[in-house]
Amino acid sequence: MKAMKIDQEGWVDQAEHILSPNFDDRPCSEIDMVVIHNISLPPCEYGGNGVIELFTNQLNPQAHPYYAEIHTLKVSSHFFIRRDGQLIQFVSCLARAWHAGVSNWQSRERCNDFSVGIELEGSDFDHFEPAQYTTLIQLIQALTLRYPIQHLVGHADIAPGRKTDPGPYFDWDAVNTLIKN
User: Fold this and answer.
1) Angstrom distances, CA of residue 154 to CA of 24, 34, 129
2) Which of 48, 80, 101, 150 has an alpha carbon within 20 to 30 A of 116's alpha carbon?
3) Residue 117 exposed, middle or buried by CB count within 10 Å (0-12, 13-18, 19+)
4) Closest CA to 79 of 140, 167, 1
C-alpha cells in the first residue's frame, strides 16, 4: 500500500471524506498533537453508521435508547478508523474538530485548538484490530510528515477523570515502536 498523503487543504488522499458540520477555525495554525479516542455506537457494537450519524448531526434518537441521550451533541473528529481499517475523514486537519472537550496538556487548555483527533471504532472493553493499527500508524506517519507533531496522547491523558479512552486494550507500545521505525 502506498503511503498516505495529506494535501494542502488538510485532506488525506486515502480516506473516505464525509463532511461534518461540527468544526470551526483554529485560533492558531500550529498542529502539534494527535489525540487517540475510541467510540462505538451503540456502545460496544461495531459496524453500523451510528458514529457517522453522530458526527453529521443525523443520529436518530429513536434508533437506540442511548441515542436519545446523545443525539443533540455537536461533536466530531478529524478521523474515524473502522474495525477493518477503513479510514473516514470528517474535518480537514486545518480546521478545529470538536473531539477533546474540556482538556489540558502540559498547561495548555483547549486541546482541540492544536490537535488532530482520531477515533478508533472500539471500546474500553475490547482489543483493537490489527487493521486498525495498520491504518492508525500510516495516518500518524502522514500527519508527522505534514505537521510538527510533538505529542501522541489518549483522550484520558488530556481529560483525566472525565475520559478513559482509548482504554486499557490500546497497545501504546506497538504504536510508538512502529511510528519510530
Assistant:
1) 22, 8, 17
2) 48
3) buried
4) 140
**Catalytic residue numbers?**
119
Q: How far apart are CA 15 and CA 70, in angstroms?
A: 26
- Structural domains of the chain sorted by starting position, each given as residue range(s) with its CATH number in brackets: 16-180 (3.40.80.10)
Give me the tens of pLDDT residue by residue for the chain, a chain 181 residues long.
689 999 999 999 999 999 999 999 999 879 999 999 999 999 999 999 999 999 999 999 999 999 999 999 999 999 999 999 999 999 999 999 999 999 999 999 999 999 999 999 999 999 999 999 999 999 999 999 999 999 999 999 999 999 999 999 999 998 887 665 4
